[in-house]
Design brief:
The protein is an alpha+beta fold and about 100 residues long. The chain has a domain of about 55 residues: Roll (SH3 type barrels). The N and C termini lie far apart (about 60 Å). This is MSHA biogenesis protein MshK. Pfam families: Y4YQ_C (PF23893).
């Protein structure tokens, strides 16, 4: 009987100690980063900027673009380390990678 009880404790012990783990790469709760769309209606969402030896690239809505290319009626006129500038009908819009400044 003691052997069965020991075996049962060994098999069920890990289940009793199991805990739910959170994804460390998930956005912080309450930050709204995952669900919030771009500030302006109809603007593409800037996801990444790639700077290097070649021409600068901006990833907007999952597609990569260079300066001079068109995105949903907008002309990409500038790419910097953390933002892009789009132009449509003579008006310029700046899209940034981060909604607010991050302090470390």
């Amino acid at each position: 009987m003691a052997k069965w009880l020991t075996l049962l404790c060994c098999l069920l012990g890990p289940l009793a100690q199991a805990e739910v783990l959170q994804d460390p790469t998930a956005p912080l709760a309450g930050s709204g980063a995952a669900a919030s769309p771009s500030k302006g209606a109809g603007l593409p969402r800037l996801q990444s900027v790639i700077l290097g030896n070649g021409p600068a690239l901006a990833v907007l809505d999952g597609q990569s673009y260079r300066v001079g290319q068109r995105i949903d009626g907008f002309l990409l006129v500038g790419i910097s380390a953390d933002a892009v500038v789009l132009e449509k009908a003579g008006k310029r819009q700046t899209l940034t990678l981060f909604g607010s400044k991050i302090r470390m």
